[in-house]
Design goal:
Bound molecules: adenosine-5'-triphosphate
Number of strands: 10
Helix content: 25-40%
Shape: globular
Number of domains: 2
CATH architecture of the largest domain: 3-Layer(aba) Sandwich
Oligomer: single chain
Low-confidence stretches: none
Mean pLDDT: 95
Structural class: alpha/beta
Strand order of the largest sheet: 6-7-8-3-9-10
Length: 234
């Protein structure tokens, strides 16, 4: 399988604070890989490093065979990296439809457009004319993911998508991800919700204090209660 996104030896700092230590990870075409770790483990920093929002001090990010460690985030979006950040950032004063239009990326095309997105997200279709800021947290998360899909990314990167969602919305998110997997979407997500992560992922990479401490297929992870207890809140 083609490796879509690969990071090797990432060392990332905020000022003098060394946050990521030699982080390696990769995502192959059609896979759903979950980066797991507690609060503050370094999940968001890993996403920021991959996307170029914080440039790692050393290490490499390769996307579809192209070295892009220092490429600006908007250019990474143009080559097919689609990030839904932890804070979602729906545009409150714009309608749902306008939010989706803002997700279009020049030069990128594919199966996703307003029609196919509305088919996938019927609730958003019903709320097409509502302002983004009036949606619930869960609906905003769906809108943020839908907007990222409008850019037809080659990898969809979801930073803690289940955070703050009601159990019902987590269920909808699970259904959505399983649906995207059926469409062979390549997904990298981060999570601390073990049950949710296990229900959607093919592989996990566990990070703790900025170090990758475990990586395995989902079945091995499911059976490894020691790792779950040691590095994740269970
Ligand atoms: P969370 O679930 O809390 O988002 P996370 O695994 O995504 O956790 P990060 O946000 O990547 O973790 O944070 C990793 C470490 O970096 C933490 O110790 C955090 O306190 C620190 N950190 C995050 N942002 C900054 C910053 N702007 N300046 C300095 N330290 C930071």
């Amino acid at each position: 399988m083609e490796v879509i996104l690969e990071a090797t030896g990432l060392n990332t700092f905020y000022g003098r604070s060394h946050i990521l230590f030699d982080v390696d990870l990769h995502v192959a075409a059609g896979e759903t890989v979950c980066l797991m770790g507690r609060n503050g483990a370094g999940k968001t920093t890993t996403f920021r490093s991959l996307m170029g929002l914080t440039v790692p001090r050393s290490g490499r990010v390769v996307f579809r065979g192209r070295e892009c460690t220092r490429l600006a985030p908007y250019r990474k979006a143009r080559i097919g990296m689609g990030l839904v950040p932890e804070d979602r950032r729906v545009f409150g004063p714009f309608t749902v439809r306008e939010n989706l239009e803002l997700g279009r990326i020049p030069g990128r095309s594919g199966d996703w457009n307003a029609d196919t997105v509305f088919e996938q997200f019927p609730t958003l279709a019903r709320f097409a004319s509502r302002l983004g800021g009036t949606l619930s947290g869960g609906e905003q998360q769906m809108l943020a993911i839908a907007r990222a899909l409008m850019g037809n990314p080659d990898v969809l990167m979801l930073d803690e998508p289940s955070e703050g969602l009601s159990p019902v919305m987590v269920g909808s998110l699970k259904e959505l991800i399983l649906n995207l997997k059926e469409k062979k979407t390549t997904i990298l997500l981060s999570e601390q919700n073990i049950r949710f992560a296990m229900s959607v992922s093919d592989r996990v990479v566990v990070i703790d204090k900025g170090h990758v401490v475990h990586r395995s297929g989902i079945e091995a992870f499911r059976q490894d209660e020691a790792v779950q207890k040691r590095y994740l809140a269970v």
